[in-house]
Amino acid sequence: MRYAHPGTEGAIVNFKERYGNYIGGEFVAPVKGQYFTNTSPVTGKAIAEFPRSTAEDIEKALDAAHAAAAAWGSTSVQARSLVLLKIADRIEANLEVLAITETWDNGKAIRETLNADIPLAADHFRYFAGVLRAGRQRCGNRRQYRGLSHS
In its keyword annotation, does this UniProt entry include rRNA-binding (predicted)? Predict the structure, then answer.
């Protein structure tokens, strides 16, 4: 299947000229106002401008994360699982848009982004939603070191 170039007639994807950092539930300009142009390997032309974020932007993002931590921390495992499932649903509902965007961003063939990369992203959210519901409350194994024995 062929897709129209973003921003042309019949295109499924249209990029904005400039994007911001997504912090605290909204897009915000970078603190120092610096951007870089992302060029598509598909055409060699600019896609859009993106924030050239600095330590100050990271601090803003960390502040927002810390502000949200208490509410998220008190959210039940079942509710967290549902959030992950909703994310997977949204990824699947926007499969073509996400796949085309990914292709224009990194140059990978649309058949790969459409049939592997984006569906696998949804699968990962579903997997971890299931992990939450399975009752494991921590990640990984923590084994106490007990020394070596050899004869």
Answer: no
pTM of the model: 0.82
Q: What is the DSSP letter of 10?
A: T
- How far apart (Å, rounded) are the C-alpha atoms in residues 70 and 67? 7
- For residue 85, what are its two tokens? 């499932």
**Tokens standing for residue 126:** 């579903």
Structure tokens at 90: 């949204």
Domains of the chain, residue spans: 1-74, 76-137
The model's pLDDT over 8-42, given as tens digits with 9 standing for 90+, comes to 999 999 999 999 999 999 999 999 999 999 999 99
In this predicted structure, which of 20-24, 64-68, 111-115, 143-147 has the lowest mean pLDDT? Answer: 143-147
Q: Which residues of 94-108 are buried (b: 16+ CB within 10 A; e: fewer)?
A: ebbebbbbbbbbeeb
Q: What are phi and psi of 51, to 5 degrees?
A: -60, 135
What radius of gyration, in Å, describes the C-alpha atoms of the chain? 21
